[in-house]
Records
---
Amino acid sequence: MHVRPAALAAMAILGLCALSAHAQTTVLSYNEIAAEYAANPEAAGKKYDGRRLAFSGQLMRMGSEPGGTYFGAIAEDGAVFDTAFEVAEQEALKAKFEGNEIQPFQKSSTLVFECTNEGQVGTVVQGLKLTKCRAAE
C-alpha cells in the first residue's frame, strides 16, 4: 500500500492535534490538587489555573430546575465539590443516570469528566472553581 506524502503529512498533523488536545487535560485527584493549593497557592495556580482537569466519580444535579447547570461531584478519592455543566453538555451525561434522565439529587454512575479550573475560590471554605465541564468518556 502506497501512502501519498500529502496524506502522510495530514495524518501527522491530525495526530499532533489529538496529542495536543489530550496533553491539556491533567488527570489527578481533587484532594491532591487541593493539597497543592493549600501548600503553595501561587505555584498551584501557575500549574492548574486555566487548565482542563479530569476527575472520576459520580455527579448529582443540585436543584430542581430542568436544565440547571450546577452539579455536585463525589470523586473516587472521596472529595466532594461543585461543578458546572452547560445544558448542551448534559446530553452526554444522561446515559450515566437511571432511566437515562437527569433527576435532581440523583447520583449518576461513575464516569470520567473534565472541567476548566478557574482557580481557587473561597476564603473560609476553599475549593476550585470548575466550569465548562463535560463527560470525557
---
Amino acid sequence: MTHFPINLANLSQLTIGRFPFTTCITTRWMDNDMYGHVNNVNYYSYFDTAINEFLIKKANFNPLNSEQIGFIVKSSCEFIHPISYPGSLIVGVAIKRVGNSSVDYVAAIFDANETLCATGELTHVFVERISQKPQAIDEELREVILNYQG
C-alpha cells in the first residue's frame, strides 16, 4: 500500500484517494440542528465510527471482548463545508503516528460529490480493559495499523 503523508496544512490537495481506508456514513434526521445542517458534535461521531470500523474490519479488533481497548484522549476538527440530512458521506482514515501505546489518526469527511467538508485529528491510547492503564499496542494490531500510515 503506497500512500503519501497527509498534510492538513494544504487542504486544497486533500482528496479521498489520499486515504488508505474509507467508509460510507449516512446522515440521520437527528444529526441536523436548528440551523438546518449537521451539528458539530456529530462530526466527532463520524470520525469515531470510521476509526472503529477501520480497526474492526482491517485489524480484527473486537471492542466487546478484546483485552485491550482504545480511548480517544485528544481530538480536533476543522469545519470546511456544511453537511446536512439527508446526505451520504465518505470518511477517510489514515494513521499519522504510532507510538508505544498510542495512535494518532487523520480523518476527513467528504460529501457524496467528494467535496471536503471537515478534517480531524484524533489520538487513541490503548489500555488494558480491566485496569484501564496504558499498555503497549498488541503486536498483531500494531502490524496492521502500520500498513495504513498516511
---
Amino acid sequence: MKILLSAYACYPGRGSEDGVGWQWAVGLAELGHEVWIITRDDQTKRRAIENFLSSRPDLEARLHPHYFDFGTNHGNTMPYQRFEQFHFIHWQLRVLPEAQKLEATHDFDLVHHITFGTVRFASWLWKLKKPFIIGPLGGGETAPWRLRIGYSRIGHLKELARDASNAFIRFDPTVQQMLKNADVIMCKTAETLSYIPQKYRHKSITKIEIGIDQENIRDCTTDTLCEKNKLRLLYVGRLVHWKGVNFSLAALKRAKDLGANFEFTIVGKGDELNQLRSLAKLHNIERQINWKEWVSKSELTRIYDDHDVLLFTSLHDSSGNVIMEALSRGLPVCSLDLGGPGALLSDDVGWLIPINKRSVNQILDHTAETIQRICRNPDEINNRKKNIPEYLSRRSWIDAIENAYRESLAMLKNKTRI
C-alpha cells in the first residue's frame, strides 16, 4: 500500500512522540508498505533521517520523508519549543495544501495521522478523501481529584486547564469533524476511548502504540544484587506536576518509617524540581535521593543497569515509553494502576498499585508496604526479572504496528459507510 503518514513529531533515536512517529514510519516500511512521511521541518532532523536511510538501503525505496514548515524560521524549531502545541495546531491547518500536492502526485491508498497522538487536536487530512486512520490517540487520561492533593498552585491551574480542554472535545467542531470523517479511530486507553462519541465507537479500537527494539533487551536472567541490601529505585522523566514524583516521595517517607532501606535516583528536570527538593527535605528522605539532570543515552543505559526497580507513579500517562525502556534493561516497574501504565503492566513484571475505591492514605500505604516488602525479599524482583524476556518478546514495535494495522485494515475492508 502507498501510505501518507502525518507525523509532526518524528525523529530517529528519540523517545516520546518523536520516537512514535519515527518507529511507525519505519515499521510500516518494514512491513512492505511504501510510506511518505510528512513531518515538521528541522535541519537536525533532516540529517538524522538521511543518516538512518543511508544505513538502511533496504528501506530507501519505501520510506520517503517530506518536510514542511512555515514562517521566517523555516527549518528551525527553536522559536516554537515553548509554544509547541500552538505551532502544532497551526501546522495542521497549513499542511493540508502540501498533503494535497503529494496526493495529486502519488495517489495514496491510505492516509494516517500518527503524531501528535492526542484526542484534543484535529487533523484536516480527512479532506484528501482517502481512507483515513487516526491514532493511536491519548489525552483522555485524567488524574483522580483525590490524588492531586500534592500539586503546586501552578500544577492545579494547569490541570484544570487540561480538564476544561478535555471537556471541550465534545463541542469542538474541528475534532468532531475529524472523528466523523475518520474510517478508523485508534485510542491508546479506555479513558481516551470514553471521549469518542458513541456513534463513532463502531469504528474505534484500543491499541497501545509503543514497543521495544528487541536488540536493546538486556539479559535479565541473572538475579539482582541489591547493594548492601539497599533497594535501588529509579525515576526517569520530566519533573512536572502530573508525573507524580511528589506521590513517590510521600510513599517513600512512609516506607522509610516502616524500616525500608532504599535510595531513589531521579533523572530529569522540570518546573517542579525545587518543590520536589523541598518536599524530600520535609519528608526527611533527602539523604536517600540522588538528583540528576538529563544525561546522554549511553549514561542513561548505565543508570538503568545500576538500579533494581523503576518507581513510576505518573497520574495520567497515555502510554509509558519509560516503562518499556526500564523493562528492556531488566528493571521491574512499580506503578499506579492508571492510564497507559495500567494497560501496559502486569503483575508478572511489576507491581500495579490499585487505586479504585481507595483513599490517598490507602494508596500511599499500599505503595510503601510494597516497597518495604521488596526490600525484605529480593525474590520479589528476581521472579519478575525472569518473566521480562517473554513479556517483551510479544511487544516489539513491529508487533504493535502490525497488530494495529491488521485490525484497522480488516475494519476498512468490512466498512459500510453510514
---
Amino acid sequence: MSHTQSIGERGEPTAALSMLNIDSADPARLARFYAAALGWKVTYSDDSYGMVEGCPPFPCASAGKRIPAGPS
C-alpha cells in the first residue's frame, strides 16, 4: 500500500492520496476514467479490479477542482 502522512500547519495529522483501488462492474473502464480525471495512470486492471496511482499531493484537492461524476 502506498501512502504518506505528515503534520499540517496546525499540528494535525494529514495524509495524501496516491492510489485508488477500484471494484465495480467494469473496473478497467472506471480506472481509465479516474486516471484521466486525476492526471494519474492505470497501473493494473482486469475483470476483477483496477488500480490507479499518482504522485501526492492529490492534484484535484490541491488545485481546488472538483472530481467529475463517474461514467454511468
